[in-house]
Amino acid sequence: MCQKERTWKAPVLVLIIMAATSIALTGTVRADDMSADENGMIKALLLSSCITEGKGSSCAGYFDLIQPEVERSDDARAKNIGLMKLGCLSYKPQTCLYLGLLATKLDDSDASKVMFRKHMEDSCRAGRSLGCFMVGVMFHQGEGVKKDKKASRNYFKKACDGNDGYGCLYYGFELIKGEGGPADKDKAKDAITKICQSNNPDACLAAADVLAKGDAFEPDQKAAINCLVRACQLGDQEVCRQLQALR
What we know:
Structural class: mainly alpha
Oligomer: single chain
Order of helices and strands: HHHHHHHHHHHHH
């Protein structure tokens, strides 16, 4: 089977934050394209929608517009954390997620990582699988918290239960290796196969690679092909061309 050559390894927390932000901030309005009055009005509308309704697109737009402010001023950073905390306390998952991103925007200190973990835990409890995955990575790598593979496995499972592709991938790897609990290759295969139901094309490709090679369990070419088909459906044109060549 023709596949992309990919190297997979645990991303550091900073890369995950950058990836989550870049995915969310598509088609946003730049602050320097507007007058001060327009900027202020749009920020107010986006913040209101983010806090009261928990709309991810509104949180993303607001986060994009306030970045120049929070980079220049600790006061602006503190003010915006306080405002978005209102939404997080109301269990708006997207607001919690962007609050965590905002909290770590200016520094990489242990205190900031603790704050980030707290808000990601809030996001996870509110049903945001990406929040569960991020907390899992922190425990897995010992970022801002003592390394705890049992805890990371628990959070990766929660992320997988919420159909987070990378959550299922990491949960599957920990089941294969017996990290944080007993090894269970049957459950590992189930978790990795479930990745094909996610909306993450890169995770689908990783799943296809694991399923096709069969290093941990019997190779399953049919399941691997299904994952590649899903990656194609999600917009990976190179995979689409490879699948076409197989027909």
